[in-house]
Design goal:
This protein is α+β, with helices and mostly antiparallel strands. The protein has one domain. Helices cover 24% and strands 34% of the residues. The chain contains 2 helices and 5 strands. The protein has a 5-stranded antiparallel sheet, covered by helices on one side. The two termini are 17 Å apart.
Length: 70
């Protein structure tokens, strides 16, 4: 998995596993979630978004099967 720290008031880091198309997001508040079947393009756009929190709310949250892992 590739992990990237980001500058965000909500998100600490974003990870992506290419073989499984799995996105992993660790929030500053502590929880870590995994999102299944996320296209690589969404991951790339997420990394370069001007606001990671807004991108997450608009393009990821509620759009992919997710589970809290921590």
């Amino acid at each position: 998995m590739i992990n990237n720290m980001v500058l965000s008031t909500e998100i600490e880091w974003i990870g992506y596993e290419h073989k499984r198309n799995m996105l992993q997001v660790e929030f500053i508040a502590g929880p870590v979630y995994q999102y299944d079947n996320v296209p690589e393009k969404i991951y790339e756009d997420f990394l370069t978004a001007p606001s990671h929190g807004r991108f997450f709310e608009s393009n990821i949250k509620g759009k992919f099967l997710s589970r809290k892992i921590r």
